[in-house]
Design brief:
Elements (H helix, E strand, L loop, with lengths): L12 E6 L7 E7 L4 E6 L13 E6 L10 E6 L10 E8 L4 E7 L4
Antiparallel strand pairs: 1-2, 2-3, 3-4, 5-6, 6-7
Length: about 110
């Protein structure tokens, strides 16, 4: 059954990736056709249907100076068990602009 629908985006969502389990909750990274990146916190315990909120909230929208220059084609979080010291995950992003960007995502309990 459908658990949750996020709101409509300004362009196509071209990549998605769940983060490994962390104290920050269930994180879902989204890559967009225009090069944008977003990270959403998804409430897995929510039994409510409909659009976000209450089941999800955008916790990061990449500012223009760090967005990809073209469509995001792939996303990958650093695998579970390899969180770097200091409580952070890494998110790698591949793009049609021939770049790979790696972001450090601090693990902060909501």
């Amino acid at each position: 059954t459908l658990h949750l629908t996020l709101p409509t985006f300004p362009c196509a969502v071209t990549a998605v990736a769940w983060a490994p389990a962390s104290p920050a909750g269930r994180l879902l990274a989204l890559g967009l056709e225009h090069g944008g990146l977003q990270v959403w916190r998804v409430d897995d315990g929510s039994e409510q249907s409909g659009v976000a909120p209450p089941g999800a909230v955008c916790v990061w929208d990449a500012p223009p100076h760090v967005r990809c220059g073209a469509t995001v084609t792939s996303l990958a979080w650093q695998p579970t068990g390899t969180q770097e010291a200091g409580g952070a995950l890494r998110l790698a992003c591949g793009s049609q602009d021939h770049s790979v960007r790696v972001f450090r995502w601090p693990v902060v309990t909501p």
